[in-house]
# Entry
Amino acid sequence: MRPKQLFWIVKILAISFLMFMALVFVYTKLYKVRMDVQERSMRSRQEDTDLPRQEELLSKLYYEKFADLAENHLLSKYPVHTACKDEKRPAVPCYDTECGTSLTHDLKLSIGSLLSVTRKSRTAFSNPHKDITAQLESSHLAIITGASANHFAESQGLIQSLHKNVFPKFNNISLYYYDFGLDKGQLEQLMRHCRCKVLKFPVHLLPTNATRNIKCFAWKVLIIEAHLTKTDMLIYADTSVRFNSTKNEDLFTDLANKGLLLSLSDRYVRPVAHNTAPSMFKYFNIQPCSVANFQELEAGFVALLNQPFTRQVLVQTWAACAMDPNCMCPEGSHDLQHCDGGLRKYAKCHRFDQSALTLITLQLFQDYYSSFFFDHSYYSVLRGDRPKYFEALNKAV
# Structure
């Protein structure tokens, strides 16, 4: 066989092999897509079958929770504010007498609405819950926080207050600190002095760039959901939180009684009707004017008891919203982050995790969402406080 003929035979074989490998690659991709579609379709059909059972379970958990609050005299009704037409201040809660709708008191409709949120998210997106939970240890009390480099100094004040005022009172406590971009020196200090477990959040598992944005706060909700399954009591605290020395016992007693502690903003008296993007209202099928009377909840300090209601009704819905780009971080919502406090206008800005938490709680409890409010004297918020706690610990060695 001549060299030229051999060359062409080898070339044809090489091209044929490359074409074969390309076809295998394309077929593999198509097969994977097909299997994903089939899996989602099967999951969707299964959920359609399970829907009445899920609705029955969530309704049962809700009724038990409401009855428990009533039996222990813990129900607290939120006040009706001044009519909006008579309220002179532009950006405070007020009762919209011209609103043609109101929050439903029909539990079946409320539960159905929340189920639709969790169902949409579970069908479309893969929750990183298992990836987080695999790194956790069981504990009686878990406290979680997280920071990027620019909040590292502020977080030392939180850690100092925990070391001084909380750690001595609990034998089985876990502190988790999520690293969202600390530099090498900060990380070394943290590992040396924090008495905590430092973790990285699997941001790459979130579905879109919007949900991966740290200012979307989807990460916070998903961390709370994952940690709640591994502890009896869970507290999420922003880096500006400082635990006070005298009220800790009351805090945990209150949590044990209510199962959930939520708070209003310590800085602003802003209505959720102003602070929520139009698309989130549409997602939850709520008219902004129907919640004009209610102040928005804070999410910088949230305390939860590991109970079926908290896990399966409240937090599961909150986490489903966090995973869905159309819910917590809808397109254009980051442009609504800064609010004009001098303007009365519905859906003029957006508060992401806070907006979602408020709407979910209102759908469940309406005027009684204030039953979960608590005494702010348990802790203080010192934004911008930058104590050199780790430096002091270094000098003490």
